[in-house]
Amino acid sequence: MVRVPYDQLHRLAEDVLLAAGTSAGNACVVASALVAANADGLGSHGVSRLPGYSAQVSSGRVNGTAIAQLNRTANGAFCVDAMDGFAYPAIKTGLDAALQTGLDNGIVGVAIRNSHHSGVAGHRVETIANSGFLGLMFSNSPAALSPPGGSQPLFGTNPIALACPRQDATPLVIDLSLSQVARGRVALAASRGEPIPVGWALDQAGQSTTDAASAMSGSMLPIGGDKGALLALMVELLSAALTGSHFGFEANSFFSDQGGPARVGQFFILINPAAFSGPGFAGRVETLLDAILDQQGTRLPGERRLQQRADSRRHGIEVSQSLYRELQSLAGR
Questions:
Q1: Which of 51, 130, 135, 299 is the most buried (most CB within 10 A)?
Q2: Given this model, what pLDDT does residue 63 score?
Q3: Among the listed residues 139, 135, 145, 127, the one whose alpha carbon sits nearest the alpha carbon of residue 109
Q4: What residue ranges define each of the domains in the chain, with the CATH number in brackets?
């Protein structure tokens, strides 16, 4: 492993994307999202994605120069067409527009269509909470989970996230995929030739497997059995049906440079707490969180992530030597 200073890794990520044909503006936004994932210890959504992203831009599966198209379709509704480009610039376009309204209506929805992999869902909603509002995100992804009673992948792992502003503290962020683990962790294990634990995934024959490559061609196991699969169905409705995007079974893989654009969707709900509870919301949040922490052995979601973030800023980000060399090669260095 090598430790790379935060800003240096960001420049390297930008250079990889630029070398593949991504526009400067898009490269900066995408690099920021990926390096932030690594900084929080979420490497499966970090710069390990760059070789795949780079190949998909080069092959035309992702439009690296896309300019997201924003439409305000109602007082509290924004629709963004990612134009088969990266998700991160499209999401930024939609959230920036929504936040600029001040959420005077109480609630604003942002729909993203014709999109791609959206990375760490918690980071997307953390931006909303940093502005003083509650944020929820729903995103679908290429098929990886079977429906209840079925044997073939149909739904994506479909992450959901919520961020809540706090009094004198960083926002509370809850971020989870609806599979036992994020599929990116399995992909990362497959790329390294490492096994995965029992209970994460099934192979193509529907048998439990510890082989990451077999898992990538099979299906992920949902959290909570059938209940998790039904939650994934709910996310398909919110993020794909509502936005006019591909369902999981219609979307091409995030990990391949073959085929057409993924064209998945994301849906955001931004809530102004003051419109519903007046000034008392922040205090009620702290009452609940204090009650959690009063119990021995508990912690709040995100504590380790924030510690890792601070450490990465001070000491740099750990990246495997093989990946670091690959990124330098892709950047033309």
A1: 135
A2: 98
A3: 135
A4: 1-59+303-333 (1.10.1530.10), 68-179+222-301 (3.30.1370.60)
d(CA 235, CA 170): 27
Which ranges in the chain belong to alpha helices (H)? Answer: 6-20, 24-39, 50-59, 87-100, 121-129, 183-192, 212-216, 226-236, 274-277, 281-293, 303-315, 321-330
**The pLDDT of residue 285:** 97
What is the distance between the alpha carbons of residues 252 and 236, in angstroms, rounded to a whole number?
15
Q: What is the pLDDT of residue 188?
A: 83
Q: In the chain, which stretches have pLDDT less than 50?
A: none
Q: Which two tokens stand for residue 61?
A: 């599966």
CA–CA–CA angle 209, 256, 216 (5° rounding): 5
Query: Minimal CA–CA distance to 318: which of 41, 17, 54?
Result: 41
**Residues sharing a CB contact under 8 Å with residue 156, sequence separation 6 or more, in sequence order:** 139, 140, 141, 142, 143, 144, 145, 232, 235, 236, 248, 251, 264
State residue 68's pLDDT score. 98
Give bridge partners of residue 219 from the DSSP assignment: 202
With 0-12 CB in 10 A as exposed, 13-18 as middle and 19+ as buried, what is 207? exposed
> For residue 219, which of 235, 205, 232, 201 has the smallest C-alpha distance?
201
- Measure the CA–CA gap between 98 and 79, rounded to whole angstroms: 10
